[in-house]
Amino acid sequence: MNMNLYGHAGRWLMIDCGVSFDEPLNPAKPNSLKHEVVCADPRFITDNKDELEAIIITHAHEDHIGAIEDLWLRWQKPIYTTPYTAAVLRKKLAYTAFAELVSIIETPAARVLHTGDWKIDAQPITSAGFDSGVFQRLGLTGIDAVVGDSTNAMKPGWSTSEADCHDGLLAEVKEAQGRVVVGCFSSNIARLITLARVAEASGRYLAVLGRSLERNVGLARQFGLWPEHIELIDHTHVGYLPAREVLVVATGCQGESRAALNRLADDSHPHLVLDKGDKVIMSAIIIPGNELDIQRLTNKFKARRIEVVHAEQSDRILHASGHPNQEELKQLYQWVKPRMVIPTHGGPDHMKAHAEVAKKAGVRMTLTGMNGDLFKIGLQPSVRRNAVKAGRIALARD
Fold it and tell me: Which pLDDT score, from 0 to 100, does residue 99 have?
């Protein structure tokens, strides 16, 4: 549920404004009451909204964008993002102006690169391969700080390319005797395209279950990302097809109670019924904190003798992370040559590992902290602990 604030000379920029799902308001008490939609408490910046200049959204994943529709009216500030993410926002909001993404934050005190989610991928499916020249040129400008993604900082080597998922998913689908349902993040357009190609190669029809999936496929078509020759069938028709001709992508890979996968597990989905011998493929990571919800979902399928294959437990490549492993982090810092690195987007162990990787890559200074800490990035870098009250709030959704 990302929400970062950058301040200088009494003015602020917000970077991302996301949500998480089915979580407690107090993460220290994971067994307490869970709320369907949760975001970071914006009280500090709401109390100081006259000092907020703008909001920058790095990309269209719900943990970076999802709270905008609930919170934007509190601030009513310009939003800067990429064209595709702007289109996603226009579906959520009809009253906001958008512009191009600003990737570097420049002030008289410091120049900062905020990475957002990123990785080095030579075959990312939806675009050309990773362009190292952009980062090499940044290295010539003098970057004071990189505020960077720590999600996979504990994983050695290089991350898997999105293109490598095709063969593993195709093998799993071809082995299936009945229907196949794939759970993945609805905002992962590259994975949806891969599954569309898998459907074509395996002689199955592809449908999507879930409003967010339908919306994102529509946007992918609008922006020319979707292969023109590949069609989806109407999700209301999928239940009438022979089992061996069905490939469905469904929302809810993190065990969300109201998502399509959970309704399929409960045998309560209005358009599709699964039977003994069908297969569910979880083409996603298990986000820490969601283990019990995903296990409950898995158990419900298995109780009905529906096979469940988790990407993290398979010998095949069924998922590719959208975050950098250690070698990619090292490469970034060798290109950009920042004065310091501030790890974010991860737990304490992830951020500690990220800081160690940065030091091995030649970065002289790292600053680590927790939610609510204030990082000073000027001539005398420091961290002021607990400078801002940091908590969570629940959002009401229909």
Answer: 35
pLDDT of the residue at 102:
33
**Mean pLDDT of the 91-119 span:** 70
Q: Are 115 and 146 in contact (CB under 8 A)?
A: yes
Write down the residue that tokens 């307490």 correspond to: 32
Q: SS in 3 state form for the chain?
A: CCCEEEEECCEEEEECCCEEEEEECCCCCCCCCEEEEEEECCHHHHHCHHHEEEEECCCCCHHHHCCHHHHHHHHCCCEECCHHHHHHHHHHCCCCCEECCCCEEECCCCEEEECCCCCCCCCCCCCCCCCHHHHHHHHHHCCCEEEEECCCCCCCCCCCCHHHHHHHHHHHHHHCCCCEEEECCCCCHHHHHHHHHHHHHHCCEEEEECHHHHHHHHHHHHCCCCCCCCCCCCCCCHHHCCHHHEEEEECCCCCCCCCHHHHHHCCCCCCCCCCCCCEEEECCCCCCCCHHHHHHHHHHHHHCCCEEEEHHHCCCCCCCCCCCCHHHHHHHHHHHCCCEEEEECCCHHHHHHHHHHHHHCCCCEECCCCCCCEEECCCCCEEECCCCCCCEEECCCC
| 220 φ/ψ angles, rounded to the nearest 5 degrees | -60, -40
pLDDT (average), residues 126-155: 91
Alpha carbons 219 and 207: distance in angstroms, whole number: 16
Mean pLDDT score of the chain: 92
Sheet harboring 104-106: ordered strands across? 104-106, 111-114, 145-149, 340-344, 365-366
CB 149 within 8 A of CB 323: yes
* Full-model pTM: 0.77
- Average pLDDT of the residues in 229-240: 93
- Residue 89: pLDDT band with limits 50, 70, 90: confident
d(C-alpha 88, C-alpha 59), whole Å: 10
pLDDT at residue 217 is higher than 90: yes
Contact 169, 269 (CB under 8 A): no
